[in-house]
Amino acid sequence: MSKDKEILTNNTVEQSVVQSTASQEQSPYIQTEFGDFDTDEDILLDIKDVEMTYRLPTERIDNIKEYFIKFIKGKLRYQKFEVLKGVTLQARRGEGLALIGRNGAGKSTLLRIIAGIMDPTSGIVRTRGNMVPLLKLGAGFDGNASGEENVYLNGAMMGFSHKEMKKKYDSIVEFAELEKFMKMPIKNYSSGMLSRLAFAIAVDVQPDVLLIDEVLAVGDARFQRKCSERIDQLRDNGTTFIVVSHSMQQIKRLCKQAVYLKDGRIQMYGPTDVVSAQYLKDTMV
Prior knowledge:
- By secondary structure, the protein is α/β, with parallel strands linked by helices.
- Helix content is about 40%, strand content about 25%.
- The protein is built from nine helices and ten strands.
- It has helices spanning about 15-25, 65-70, 105-115, 145-155, 160-175, 190-205, 220-235, 250-255, 270-285, and strands at about 5-10, 45-55, 80-90, 95-100, 120-125, 130-135, 210-215, 240-245, 255-260, 265-270.
- A six-stranded mixed β-sheet has the order 6-7-8-4-9-10, sandwiched between helices.
- Helix 4 crosses helix 5 and helix 5 packs across helix 6.
- The protein is globular, with a radius of gyration of 21 Å.
- Mean pLDDT is about 85; it is low at about 10-25.
């Protein structure tokens, strides 16, 4: 994603603004001072009052035929499940922002909304610069295509031309240590080989924003050290990190700011040490 992106959903935006403002006033731990995305080019991510609601069927439907019969007769019944409720946050250039919380808190859903994989039910999502998701290593690969072909395919998905990826190709292959296997269909790759190639592509494109969802443990111990060194280089060069992880050690190393999500709402938003301490305290209850 090489250009600015804005997602605006109009459903209950004004209502969610009121709800979000009210919830923030009730908690001294939620950050309320934000910059102006339109005038401050160092703001790479701007999220305002994002809500995500799923409709879940209230009864089991075993096949498509049964589904369509109930749909035509108007007998489908759903219940609403709110995953995110009035989430507002920002991330600046070179900043590390951690999303922490228990399973089901809405962290991965929020990360997918930021990546543009999902649209929120309501709210505003604006991004700036080249954004690369590391949500599931190997996602988007074509198993019948070779490793070489998948390098160009993934580059195209991230908004890079064939010419741009050709310049990066040698360094990607060298980092992944797969020189002998790039002509082979990746369906024959081991899971470790696939992970190394996916990681090498993601970090070589020098993203402005890197989205990470529990995928930093790649390959063996030696390759993990190599990955950590590359991550540190990206951080030193000004890449912004949005990180979902249950590893407090990783979060504290990469992120100075953290958002603690609980039941889809921001429970706490501030310095990582303070927020993570509160989260760990809550998990002991």
